Amino acid sequence: MTTQHSEKNTMEACDMVDIKINRDVLILGAGALGLETASRIAAQGLRVSVIGRKTACARESGCTDAMLDSGDVTIMQDVTLYDVAGVTGDFRVTLARGPEKTEARFGAVVVAPSHARTPLNAAYGLTLNDRVLSESAFGELISREGGLDNLTRSGDDQDTVVAFLLGFGQEGDTVSTGRILESALAVQNKDNCRAYIYAGNVKVGAKGLERLFTAGRHAGVVCFKPDTIPLVEQDGPRVRISVTDPVLRTAVELEPDYVVVEEGMVVGEENLKNAALLRIDTDIDGFLPSNNVHRFPVRSNRKGIFVVSGPGDAANAALGIQELLGKGTVTVPADQAKVDEDRCVICLTCYRSCPHGAIFWENGAAVISPAACQGCGICAGECPMDAIQIGGFSDDILRAEVEKAVVKDQDSPSIVAFCCKNSAHGAGEAASLFGHALPSGFRMIKVPCAGKVDVEFIMKAFVDGADGVMVAACHEGNCKAERGNIYAKWRVNEIRKRLESMGLDKESLEFVTVASNMAGAFAAKVNAFAEKLR
Fold first, then answer.
1. N or C terminus of the chain with fewer C-beta within 10 Å?
2. Contacts of 132 (CB under 8 A, 6+ apart)
3. 241 located within any domain
4. Strand partners, 368
């Protein structure tokens, strides 16, 4: 059900539409983080279904028996995700329990991935034994009955020495860092025990880690931070660690009673499967979420699908879901993306290229969900039939913008720059505002994403008399539409080949990347391009 009304924006008056959406939420993962997210969402008056097996640590999640008894939170422990269809506000999910399949509908989905951990002893040339332990094995040892008294030293009354190796097998794993800092502090606070940490670039960018590191130093934990990996020699149960202290500038050797090795995360097969079914992006190593600055802290490339993976994420996801589902409707521009059914031949180009999973098809034509669409225009740029128009950036509007942008100036070449509104356009406006010199023949055309700039508009600029054309996009990995900058670069490279085959100067077309806060760099790139055209 939809209702329409009008609203002014900076571009023009446009019709807005209210779309009714489902308010139920599905959470994939019944660990502590998944159940904490469930409890926060349920407290906002939404119904939550959780699939996955509860873990021991889930007891502290805040998901109470009262919530479970009321039906606000339903946990299905023997159920897996089988298939996903639909879009934001109406995800049509198939769940499997053995051979049995059931279908359900949800307005939003939260992924709470769990990851296995593996010891990184090979990075240090070590073999695990009862004195060389992974961080998990060491944690289990001191959590047994007797606690730290389980750290034994045979043959004398000297202190028990525990050495922790961190940050050379990997960098930036705050989970591993936190566990090792906690263990080292516990060891140091135990009578007749001493803790040493050999660390690379210690990352303390998670809640409480800076405090924990400082507490360890104050308690007497010795921390070496060499520039290179320590020399570690193993002879059966004996291990010798040698390092050149950068402060003392001397070699320091230690033969600890125990060596504790950091662990790294391993991507779970279930997480990869769920990411593929949900059509959400992972990072380069296959972990969720993707490392796109526009997605932090909990959003994915698909509106309505959230990822919680660390401290604070449960609260952020609950806020995002309340914003999306709280009213039971979403209000979006009615013309955000429109398909001309007479032109559409269902080639599926738009479906494959949409980074937001907003396109499906019915009745012989593609359909773009206004609730899921984020208006990037990549589909319109890729459509071979020109069957898709983007509100505020239609083909007619962009053609008119190109005609206005081509100006003749005796002192400057005419340059038309198609600038992404999320990055380069802001940089260009800032360059002008801050007084950076720009060529007098330079004009910008704002586009929703560089991926919207297709061959027609670039060639029209040349036909209308432009001396040079620039396509300015986000840096790779920072595109709000995930891959719009990549599509734009492909098109520019293809057109440069065409120009060269026609005997024209391919250097008159340039692709650049720039962030919105890089006013000076933007001006420098434009001026360098103008000099090349003179």
1. N
2. 121, 126, 234, 239, 258, 259, 261
3. yes
4. 359
Domain end call among 250, 265, 280: 265
The 10s digit of each residue's pLDDT in 44-57 is 999 999 998 776 45
pLDDT confidence of residue 70:
62
CATH of the domain at 83: 3.50.50.60
Q: Which pLDDT value is given to residue 66?
A: 61
Query: Rounded to whole angstroms, how far apart are CA atoms 91 and 350?
Result: 20
Q: What pLDDT is stored for residue 10 in this prediction? A: 39
- Distance CA(138)–CA(496), nearest Å, equals 59
Does residue 2 lie within any of the structural domains?
no
Residues of the chain with pLDDT under 70: 1-14, 55-71, 153-156, 246
Task: Give all strands (DSSP E) within 422-524, no chain letters.
Answer: 442-447, 468-473, 509-513
Segment holding 247, helix H or strand E:
none
Q: Quote the pLDDT of residue 281.
A: 94
pLDDT of residue 428: 97
Contacts of 237 (CB under 8 A, 6+ apart): 129, 130, 131
The length of the chain in residues reads 534
Domain that holds residue 443: 395-533
Task: For the full predicted model, state whether its pTM sits above 0.85.
Answer: no
Q: How far apart are CA 492 and CA 497, in angstroms?
A: 9
